[in-house]
Amino acid sequence: KSKEQGTGSYRFYDPEMNLVTCQRLAMETHLRQALERQELSLHYQPQIDLRSGKVIGMEALLRWDSSALGSVSPAQFISLAEETGLILPIGAWVLETACKQARQWHQAGFDNLRMAVNISACQFKQPDFIERLDQVFQETGLDPEYLEVELTESIVMERSEETLMTLTDLKIRGIKLAIDDFGTGYSMLSYLKYFPIDRIKIDRSFVRDITTDSDDAAITEAIVVMAHSLKLKVVAEGVETEEQLEFLRGCGCEEVQGFYFSRPHPVDRAELFLSRHFTDKNK
Ligand code: C2E
Ligand code: MG
Ligand code: MG
Ligand code: MG
């Protein structure tokens, strides 16, 4: 077996490692061309307000249909995009496309629909991240208050000045801020107090077993109670059954997202769902 040396190079030839490296390199090569070849698209998954049972937001989820590799899941290519820096141009495209779509939906009569966009750490940490966002709002005409930025805990964990400044810049513009995959990262929760967060998204690994595993049920209930006492809203991810839904309703969770309502779908199908299940809370 090959061992990594202090220099970071591999000492022995390892066919297995070589294969993985080759596959990764091939994927990287194709991912580099994905944007210009227009192989990337966004799917949208509705977020449902539990009180009304209607859609109040959409989460934009990236899809890659590679001419060479077929469809590749985000679990495979997002981390690669992050490691190679490709997430910067790709993420910029995602933001622009999602904001443009939100604006179009608003103009089509789905007023006040929120658009949630996943943002990687390196994207968030770009010195000109805010400038780029402003540019997107200017170009698309989207009111910033309808954008929700989804960040993972790893970004807010280090309570740095830079992060606080960027989050404050988001807040000033009315942009919403959600913590994605909540509960999976760290147990240190002080960042919830330190940063201007709007919403936390309970990870679907808890939701999956809430009706069968009393620990997951207890954790979920505790997260909702804590969130509410901090005046944060809660979205539960990965709701697949009516039993899970009822449990979450009982906890006082405000919003849900999951296959029970709808999978993420391309624009047309998402819009169809929207036209059947949209509500404008402000009307
Ligand atoms: P996420 O942001 O936590 O998104 C939720 C994931 O759960 C999505 O997977 C969605 O399809 C899936 N999901 C939703 N409801 C259910 C359900 O009821 N059951 C099950 N089993 N799964 C459900 P997806 O689309 O494969 O995305 C995976 C992850 O990739 C995302 O997790 C997010 O972290 C990342 N990602 C996706 N699009 C983007 C993007 O544009 N930019 C960045 N930086 N990351 C992205
Ligand atoms: Mg997300
Ligand atoms: Mg998540
Ligand atoms: Mg995630």
UniProtKB/TrEMBL annotation:
Residues 24-278 form the EAL domain. The chain holds residues 425 to 707 of 707 of the full protein. Transmembrane segments: none annotated. It comes from Syntrophotalea acetylenivorans. This is Stage 0 sporulation protein A homolog.
